[in-house]
């Protein structure tokens, strides 16, 4: 029973009952166990992969990272083309997907559209994330590549001296892979950026208008910089998504172990290498693949660390300014 | 994806049959391995499970390498492989192995040219050079000379190869190595090989991936199983065999190629370059692998399974895009199946 008038003898504050105390402890323990389980799981995965990769690491050493041949017969393995392809495709995809994603986020949060329509748009973009990877791959083969081919070959013929257009696009290659990858990272970037921009207090916007800024000045000079931390995490997450994408890339990038600046030439990525070779790999190749998986993990980790460092650095700089 | 669905469906069917037979003596025969013969194997195993009371055969198309691994690790009752087994692998199976060729397939060169001309002829000194990246354009005089009826566009040749390791790779590269010393030296043969590096050699996963890429790329050529080419109505080239004749896949050529095979006692034989004048040049058997020693009841049903595949099974091979085993081979395999004890 709730009584609003307190008797003189009874204090409003009571020590927690045994049940409340128990629930509190149980919740704390469950949360702690969950958190530790995640860390333990990551550690276990690294330990397991590392353990299986150990023979390949001791045999190939650091040469593995700079060698360009993946020779199953000769037992000599190197993943430089795959590292290059992974970083090149992910960076380009982030450039395109990130730009469009942030633009969409601004468009949907800054009162350009009636709220209902903005929500509908948002749901639509988030639905992109639910499309299976293999469907993106097929869409890439049957729609994106034929669509890109004439333009790409025109660029190659007329501007072929620029390294980016150095080869003609026959089918699978870097550009179709990048475009499909950009669409795949778009929902991640757009959704998190929207949340970040949405969190900027309304007062800040009002203050900016009060200072006499135009709408675009307010957006670009006040709101986006204020939300930059969140937008940046969106980009880092999107980059992580691009690094690990497997099936669509295996279908679109051409799986050719070469290092080329050309956007129209086939390439390979680490995830695609793993997907293609794992099912039938014999012992020695399996160890090398585990090593490659370890390198992919390390790249993802390094990207995240660099991302966090830049984030800390920019927020410090902004705090000073 | 389609194959995964089929596996799921097969598993569900197997489960359903199992449940309905729960009262009868229940024996499950588990196999894994090659994906190329999966369509015909699953049809066979389903039919065999249906007609044999109390026995269910499950097969997982994991790939030849994985099947061999499972056999060595004792996790299956039988396995299947397009690349047979190497002596080292056989030595690892302490229960002993019986290798039985069960069906055979042809590998075709599918191509995509503007205007879709059919009946492209490829001489045996030309197609290895295409896959070596030495012939790079369709209007190359060596291609044109063999095909007076076709006007070739000035288009680069895009070679589409498999990105994953596979028995198809093994059979195709073994054939190219047999007919071209240059190919043998530069690329060699195996389930995965080092293809020449070129921006006009691209790779796609699985037979379906290669087929789709060829279909979508003007100027593409690639190697796939005949069954896939048949299914997708892809244009396939006539290949010149050892005696100089141009032979199309899917006809008598496959059976003629296999007839020339001279079986040793372990039944591992490769038809790298068949000599028969009517033979299609790239054909190969695919094997099922059994233990020599096991539970007598299992052995009994495994022998029955082999027998079913050799008799009833061979009748549907042709319609499913595989080559029926020649009668002489069937006899040899039947005799060898007695070793499963």
Task: Throw out a few tags for this protein.
heterodimer; A: 321 residues; mainly alpha; two-stranded antiparallel ribbon; 12 helices; B: 341 residues; alpha/beta; nine-stranded mixed sheet; 13 helices
Describe this structure as you would to a colleague:
The complex is a heterodimer of chains A (321) and B (341). Chain A has helices at 18-60, 63-66, 80-109, 115-128, 133-159, 174-198, 202-210, 215-226, 228-244, 247-252, 270-277, 283-320; strands at 70-71, 76-77. Chain A has 321 residues and is an all-alpha fold. In chain A, helix 5 (133-159) packs across helix 6. Chain A is globular. Helices cover 40% and strands 19% of the residues of chain B. In chain B, helix 2 (38-51) crosses helix 12 (296-317). The longest helix of chain B has 22 residues, at 296-317. The radius of gyration of chain B is 21 Å and the shape is elongated. The A-B interface holds A 69-74, 134, 138, 141-142, 145-146, 167-168, 170-173, 250-251, 254-258, 260, 262, 264-266, 272, 275-277, 279-282, 285 and B 1, 62-66, 156, 158, 160, 163-166, 188, 190-194, 197-205, 209, 212-213, 216-217, 219-220.
């Amino acid at each position: 029973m709730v009584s609003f008038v307190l008797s003189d003898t009874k204090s409003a504050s009571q020590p927690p009952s045994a049940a409340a105390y128990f629930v509190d402890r149980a919740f704390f323990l469950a949360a702690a166990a969950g958190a530790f389980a995640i860390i333990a799981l990551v550690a276990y995965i690294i330990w397991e992969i590392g353990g299986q990769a150990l023979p390949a690491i001791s045999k190939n050493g650091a040469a593995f990272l700079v060698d360009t041949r993946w020779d199953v017969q000769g037992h000599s393995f190197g993943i430089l083309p795959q590292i290059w392809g992974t970083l090149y495709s992910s960076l380009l995809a982030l450039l395109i997907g990130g730009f469009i994603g942030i633009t969409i986020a601004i468009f949907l949060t800054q009162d350009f559209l009636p709220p209902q329509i903005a929500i509908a748009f948002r749901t639509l973009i988030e639905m992109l994330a639910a499309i299976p990877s293999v469907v993106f791959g097929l869409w890439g083969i049957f729609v994106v590549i034929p669509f890109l081919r004439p333009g790409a070959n025109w660029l190659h013929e007329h501007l072929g001296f620029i390294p980016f257009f150095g080869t003609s696009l026959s089918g699978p290659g870097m550009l179709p892979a990048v475009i499909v990858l950009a669409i795949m990272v778009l929902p991640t970037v757009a959704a998190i950026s929207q949340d970040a921009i949405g969190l900027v207090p309304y007062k800040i916007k009002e203050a900016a208008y009060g200072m006499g800024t135009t709408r675009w000045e307010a957006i670009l000079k006040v709101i986006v910089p204020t939300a930059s931390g969140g937008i940046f995490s969106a980009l880092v997450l999107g980059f992580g998504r691009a690094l690990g994408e497997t099936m669509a890339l295996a279908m679109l990038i051409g799986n050719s172990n070469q290092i080329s600046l050309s956007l129209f030439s086939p390439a390979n990525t680490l995830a695609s290498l793993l997907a293609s070779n794992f099912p039938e790999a014999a012992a020695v190749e399996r160890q090398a693949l585990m090593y490659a998986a370890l390198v992919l993990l390390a790249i993802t980790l390094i990207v995240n660390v660099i991302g966090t460092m830049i984030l800390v650095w920019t927020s410090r700089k902004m705090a000073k300014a | 994806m389609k194959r995964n669905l089929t596996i799921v469906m097969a598993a569900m069917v197997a489960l359903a049959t199992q449940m309905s037979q729960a009262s009868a003596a229940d024996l499950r025969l588990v196999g894994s391995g090659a994906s190329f013969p999966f369509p015909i194997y699953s049809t066979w195993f389903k039919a065999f499970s249906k007609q044999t009371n109390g026995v269910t055969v499950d097969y997982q198309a994991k790939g030849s390498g994985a099947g061999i691994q499972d056999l060595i690790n004792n996790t299956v009752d039988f396995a299947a492989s397009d690349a047979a087994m190497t002596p080292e692998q056989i030595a690892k199976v302490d229960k002993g192995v019986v290798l039985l060729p069960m069906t055979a397939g042809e590998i075709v060169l599918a191509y995509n040219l503007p205007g879709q001309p059919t009946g492209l002829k490829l001489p045996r000194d030309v197609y290895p050079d295409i896959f070596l990246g030495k012939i790079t354009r369709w209007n190359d005089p060596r291609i044109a000379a063999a095909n007076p009826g076709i006007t070739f566009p000035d288009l680069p040749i895009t070679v589409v190869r498999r990105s994953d390791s596979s028995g198809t790779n093994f059979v195709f590269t073994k054939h190219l190595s047999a007919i071209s010393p240059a190919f043998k030296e530069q690329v060699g043969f195996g389930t995965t090989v080092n293809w020449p590096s070129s921006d006009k050699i691209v790779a796609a996963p699985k037979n379906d991936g290669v087929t789709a890429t060829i279909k979508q790329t003007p100027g593409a050529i690639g190697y796939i199983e005949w069954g896939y080419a048949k299914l997708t109505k892809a244009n396939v080239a006539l290949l010149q065999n050892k005696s100089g004749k141009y032979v199309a896949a899917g006809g008598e050529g496959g059976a003629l190629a296999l007839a020339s095979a001279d079986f040793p006692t372990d039944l591992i034989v490769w038809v790298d370059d068949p000599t028969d004048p009517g033979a299609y040049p790239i054909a190969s058997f695919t094997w099922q692998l059994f233990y020599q020693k096991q539970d007598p009841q299992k052995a009994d049903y495994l022998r029955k399974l082999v027998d079913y595949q050799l008799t009833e099974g061979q009748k549907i091979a042709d319609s499913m895009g595989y080559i029926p085993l020649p009668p002489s081979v069937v006899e040899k395999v039947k005799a060898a199946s007695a070793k499963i004890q």
